[in-house]
Every structure is written in C-alpha cells, then in structure tokens.
Amino acid sequence: MKKSVKLKITLxxxxxxxLLTVVLVSMALFISNYVATETIMERMESVVRxxxxxxxxxxxxxxxxxxxxxxxxxxxxxxYSRNGSLLAGQLPVNFKTAADFENxxxxxxxxGDNKFIVLDMWLPYNLETGFWIRGISDxxxxxYLARYLLMVSAITLPxxxxxxxxxxxxxxRKSFRPLDRINATAKAINxxxxxxGRINLTEGDDEFSHLADNFDDMLSRLESxxxxxxxxxxxxxxxxxxxxxxxxxxxxxxxxxxxxxEEHAETLAVIGRQADKMSALINQLLSMTRxxxxxxxxxxxxxxxxxxxxxxxxxxxxxxxxxxxxxDEKVAVKADKALLQRLLYNLVENAxxxxxxxxxxxxxxxxxxxxxxxxxxxxxxGIPAEHIEKIWNRFYQADPSRNNDSSxxxxxxxxxxxxxxxxxxxxxxxxxxxxxxxxxxHLPLIRE
Length: 448
Ligand code: ADP
What we know:
The protein is α+β, with helices and mostly antiparallel strands. It has helices at residues 5-52, 142-192, 207-257, 261-293, 305-313, 337-354, 385-388, 412-422; strands spanning 55-56, 63-64, 71-72, 75-80, 86-88, 107-111, 114-124, 130-138, 301-304, 323-327, 332-335, 361-368, 371-377, 426-432, 436-444.
C-alpha cells in the first residue's frame, strides 16, 4: 500500500488542490488590497480636486464656500497655511503626525500604529502666499478582509481538499480495478500453476480493459500451446513406447518359445518392423522439431515445380503404383528441394496407403491465379467431414486401425503443412467419402 500508484496519484492531486486553494486565496487577498487602495486613491483625488473649486485664496485667510466638503466618503479635507498651521477642517482622530507637505503626490503616512493615505495640493495666491489643501483617509481595513478570507478558506480548504482526495481516490480506484484483477489472476495462475484462469473483464472500454482483454487472449494462446505441448509429449512417448513394448515381448517370446529357424526369422521380422516404425517416428519428430526451431538449414532457390515433381515420380520406389503425372511446362517457385520432396513423399505415401487398390493416383502441377498448385489425388475411401479439420494435427489419425502395419503415426500431414507454411504457402484438401481425396499445396508463383 505504501508504494501504491493509486495513493501516489491521490496524494499528488490532493496536494495540488490544497496548494491551488492557498495560492488563490493569497491572490484574492493581494488583488482586493490593490483594488481597495487604488479606489481610495482615486476617490481622494476627486474629493480634494472637487474641494479646491470651493476655496478661494487671498493674501490672509482663504475664503471657503458652503459646498466645501470637510468630510466625504471617509476622506477628511483640511486647509493649512503656508507654514503648516491648520486653518480649517478636522484631523482624523489618530492622525497625530505633522507630515511634510508634498504637492500633488498621493502617499501613505504612518502615525503611531495607524496608516493614512494623504494627498496635498498647493493653492497659490501669488508667488509668496497661498494655502495647502490636505486630504486624509484611513488605509482600507485589509485585516478585516484578510480575516474574512482566511475564515472562508479555513472552511473551504479542507472541504475542497477532502473532495479532491475522495474524488480522485474513487476514480483511480475504479480505473485501477482491472489492474487489480490482472494482478490477482496472474497470482492465482502462478500459485495454482493452472493456466485456465481469466480476468473476464466485461465492463469498461479504456486502456486497462484492453490490457485485460489482451491478457486473456495471451493466456488462451499460452494455455492452448501448453496443452498442445503436453499432448505432443504424451503422444510421442506413447507412440515410442508401443514399439518398444512389442520388441521386448517379441524377444522374450522368441527366447522362450521359438524353436525352429523359421520361428526365429518371424520374431526377428516383427522386431525389424517395430524398429523401422520407431526409426521413422524418431526421424519425423526430429525433422518437425528442427523445422520448428529453425535449426535445420534450408536453401530456398528458384526451381521448376513441374520438373521436381516429374523427377520425384519417376523414382523407382513409385514405379509399381499407378501414378499419373500432369504438369504444366514450367511453374517457377522459390523452394527448398529437399523439403518439397519430403512433402511430396508424405502426400504420395498417403495416397498409396489410403488409396484404392489398383486405383489411380494423379499428381499434377498447374498455375492458378498467381499461385503454383501441386495436387496429389487418389481414389480411396476419402475422409469423413468430421475428421477433415483435424487430419493436420499431430498424431491425429482418422482411422488408426487402417494404419496398423505401416510406419505412420499421424505426423505426415502436420509435417506437410509445416513445409507449406515455411514456403509462404498453404494446404487444402478436398475429399468425398467413397470416391477419394485430393491434397493441394498452394505456393506463391514466381513470374519471370
Ligand atoms: P498417418 O498417415 O501416419 O496416419 P498423416 O498425418 O499422414 O498420418 O495423416 C493423418 C490422417 O489423415 C491419416 O491417419 C488418415 O486418417 C487421414 N488421411 C491422410 N491422407 C489421406 C488420404 N489420402 N485419404 C484418406 N485419408 C487420409
């Protein structure tokens, strides 16, 4: 709590509001003081000038008419002789000083504890004689105003500060709620080591709620890849364990019960087949991992897909199968030849495995909408719709019983898809149950 961002922001806003209130009150005090002094000075000038009109200088005593205002609006006007003796008017009670006369200058004069505003004006009769007119006023009582303002601010300052603190705390707390939930979710996941927790923030459309949504998406992805990883490890070890178990029991059986050379040869054949299966599986696992981790070096070069496919199908391995090849003249793509051959091998092997006996297998290469399309088609059983999405998953087999004797473990198509993606392409499949399947690789075409 001590280091909480919420607390820091709240304290900052509260402090700022308190400071602002103090500054505003001081400014109000200063401005009202200034305005009050200015007002009294203006009034002083107009009163003293006004009175001058009602006084006439002579060589002895001034003649003052009835309209002369000795006291108006808090301003006392007095008449002095040239040497400073009071001729007319009454001094304010606390004005006990004999201030020097200064013609036309408004100034503040101190008298004991009191301050006065004073304006003198010289009313000449001739060069030698004349009279002083003096206006005196109290300095406006700012203490009263200051007391009043301080009293008001003594009430408003805590109220405003409290409101600022409360308001900012509530807003910040509400805004930070998603963060608290993210925190709690992360902690729960960490403690329970279970990735299924989600923040599930439904309300709000601010940065934090977007963060919460992204966090949830990230958790979903982490969870699914973690699950996939777990599944992969379980499947891989299961697939490896099965042939090992078969080999072990075949050895034991052979040792105990095989008597003739034929029986020995049969047991060895079983062991050999299982070893082949293991070896194929290990190779597939290795190449998948290498492709995934990018540790295998590939040489992507421009090649003619048609030529690669024709060469591949002409290999002796496939002679015994009824493979028809239809290729456009020249279909240029950028690819790693070995990877393409591996992809082709997996597709043609599947067409052989799952195709109809004596059925035709066709391999074609065409150009279609700026893409190079390689299709391997068989006349087999086809793939039921409910399996079609999943056949690309690792270790997925639509019908494992059909694969008993072969070396496959459901990795072939996921390797095919991985190879397609490595080339910036993708795979599609069309299949009709009872009629056959067609697997197509789509690659970006290179135009010369
Ligand atoms: P495997 O062949 O080792 O089982 P694959 O990944 O190559 O693994 O294929 C996954 C599954 O997809 C197969 O088990 C099979 O059910 C289905 N499949 C693949 N190719 C074909 C095909 N040409 N015809 C019918 N089903 C197929």
